[in-house]
Amino acid sequence: MSSLLDQLHAMRRYFETGVTKPYAYRKQQLLALKKVVEENEQAIYDVLHADLKKSKEESWVTENGFFMAELKDTLSNLKNWMEPQAVPTNLLNLPSSSKIVQEPLGVVLVIGPWNYPFQLLFTPLMGAIAAGNCVVLKPSEFAPATAAIMQKIVEACFTPEQVLYIPGDGATVIPEMMNHFSFDHVFYTGSTSVGKIIYKMAAEKLTPVTLELGGKSPCVVEADANISVAAKRIAMPKYSNAGQMCVAPDYVLVHESKKNELIEALKKAIPNMYGVDASKTDGYGKIINEKQFNRIITYLTDGTIVYGGKYNAADLYIEPTIIDGVNIDSKIMKEEIFGPILPILTFNTMEEAKAIIAHNPNPLAFYIFTSSNEKEKAWIDAVPAGGVCVNAASVHLMNPHLPFGGRGFSGTGAYHGKYSFDTFSHKKSVMKSFTWFDPALKYPPFNGKLKLLKWMLG
Ligand code: NAD
Known about the structure:
By secondary structure, the chain is of the alpha/beta class. The chain has helices spanning about 1-15, 25-40, 40-50, 55-80, 120-130, 145-155, 170-180, 190-205, 225-240, 260-275, 290-295, 350-355, 375-380, 420-425, 450-455, and strands at about 85, 95-105, 105-110, 135-140, 165, 185-190, 210, 220, 250-255, 305, 310, 315-320, 320-325, 340-345, 365-370, 385-390, 410, 425-435.
């Protein structure tokens, strides 16, 4: 433990030399990371297949390719993002000039989950480096093959003062670090329950946090939606990575009049994408471990299975499944499913649907399928969610121009693209006042100056 603390203090001293601040340093670090990730492309596919049975194509879109796109976007824009931003100065403070300077935070801790183990650790790492920080990386212990390759990549690119890789049991190593060392920021992706533990530890030292949490992301299908398109766009992210996706549609709320049509369209879409027997489809994932498998299969008894329902513990396989007749008070409607089971609920009025959504407030994402602009607007206004897709699900996170994050129960803060740079930078306000004009108005006594002060402050 003392050696870990020694390493953290060495990082702090390294950061305080100021070496991480210049653009040239940051760019060189990002290019080094890019090169080694590229060199390890095949190895990354192999470990993601070993941990989660991901295909190469899925890995590229959601893991290393996603990361590369963010990295290239950052490299093209970083110089510009780092520029101080000139802002106007108000009348009261004239003559002065004002600007916002982007300052690195210091030594930051990035904690990752197992479901997109590469992307969800390396994308915030990239944002933290771009912003000029030293970074401690804690991968999930439940995707061990990916954790090992990421360690190899990090150690090939960086010294331990620059980026320190700390694998192992989160419940042990994270408190060891957070309770004895003051990080300048903690960026956590994972479950809401562990997020609360992280938030409490951070609060003890007033450490700022970004919390990228989970939750139940609802998917509303209105009567006027294009049902066959909706079915495909729900099925794709729901069963991708065997449902182990933070922004997967958790459950569907379909207008009563379209329920049967939607179920029939889903029954057509699922085998087209994941095979008639998904256990034999290489592009269909496996559940990460026995604990998660045992949790997910208990949901199968919370309703009537209308599609799928088969599972096999030896292969950690759960078939893409649709269930009907689900009670709002059942376990599957209280917990994040995080597996390939899709409950279909119905509504007749927007109020009814809103009441169901309100049982699990502040979803990470909210999806609305409709062809009506009025309904689209009404739904966007109605649900306080981290992000929204209209006539799509989960894809908003692929656009680096949109901030990605939750609100309230689904998290705090956001990242991707410039928002990652902002998350890991402090916006330092700088006002420079000139001395050639120094009116008496600025100094006491202020008696009799009220009218003038009111005018100057607007
Ligand atoms: P998790 O909370 O179990 O683990 C996340 C990290 O926390 C791991 O690195 C783990 O080692 C560490 N950890 C575990 N217990 C700890 C403890 N007691 N003290 C300190 N650290 C501890 O989450 P998970 O199971 O890996 O991921 C699944 C969850 O993450 C789901 O809820 C999902 O919705 C959410 N998630 C959110 C996003 C997002 O971007 N918002 C992305 C992916 C996953």
